[in-house]
Amino acid sequence: MADRPENPEKDTQWRAAGDRIQTLLDSCAASGAAAYERAQQLVREVVGLYGAGLERIVRAGDAGLAERLAADDLVASLLLVHGLHPHDVHRRVSDALDRVRPYLGSHGGDVDLLEIVAGEGPGENTVRLAFRGSCKSCPSSAVTLELAVQDAVRAAAPEVTSIEVVTAPTEKVTGVIPAESLMAHVKSNGHAAGWHAVPEVGDLAPGEVAGFLVSGTPLLVCRVGDLPLAYRDHCPVCDDSLAGALLRDALLGCPRCGTQFDAVHAGAGPGGAHLEPLPLLLRDGVPSVALDEPMGARA
Fold first, then answer.
1. CA–CA gap between residue 78 and residue 69 (Å, rounded)
2. Domain annotation for the chain: domains and CATH numbers
3. Which of 104, 138, 181, 273 has the fewest CB atoms nearer than 10 Å to its CB?
4. What tens digit of pLDDT does each residue of 118-131 get?
5. Cα angle 293-136-115, degrees, rounded to a multiple of 5
6. Strands, DSSP E only, in 49-173?
7. 192-208 pLDDT, tens per residue?
8. Which residue ranges does the record assign to the Rieske domain (predicted)?
9. What is the per-residue burial (b if ≥16 Cβ within 10 Å, else e) of 226-246?
């Protein structure tokens, strides 16, 4: 597991800074067009000032300084804003997919980067991906995989304007499916996915199962080897909590009805029953889980 930030709470605060700045700009619009334009100009001046300083730091450093700085997600985002990132979009998207592959593998799937197509406008790029594996037969799993990949790609390459998922070349059915349509029922009813840091997950030992309450949602997290996996705390067979579940040979057993679920394959159970998996990934070195939440609920 990667090293954690010294202050995860502060790091999470800075991750949301862009949203807070946009909220403040939007509030300025209530005072009229002139006030809104002044606020935008102020942000541009501040960003430009700090960008010029960051560029001087990078240029004055040794040949590997930009590479080392880019290893930090927060600093990497600033390097991207000012065109100072050492890696091109293809390298960054490839690295992002490599980071989520262990999670995809835990659901019996994988993803291939087919191509990145430059758009007509400056800085516009379309990423085309192909998903592979048994995970596609489980709608719940497919959505969580789409969410994990989409989040990773957009964080690493904000200049990507669209993500298209095509069928794997070896399959008979062909077609292009916009990522937005695959995510439609995640975003339906005014809900979207938000990430929540759960640093305690890092303390779980292999084979251990623990319950967590995250943003009012009860979760069950287990660790299979080095891989932590998260599910909603609900058994689809007996319609009860999984609290007290045990993990044996990658099978998660409901303590009430005794049903065994395959923890490393999207929580698949007998007769088509399956647990509801949730994306659990490292973000800035901190284990974080993605949950649906009402639009506008995020700070």
1. 10
2. 8-81 (no CATH), 89-182 (3.30.300.130), 196-294 (2.102.10.10)
3. 181
4. 876 666 788 988 88
5. 90
6. 109-118, 125-133, 160-166
7. 457 788 999 989 999 99
8. 196-289
9. ebbbbbbbbbbbeeebbeebe
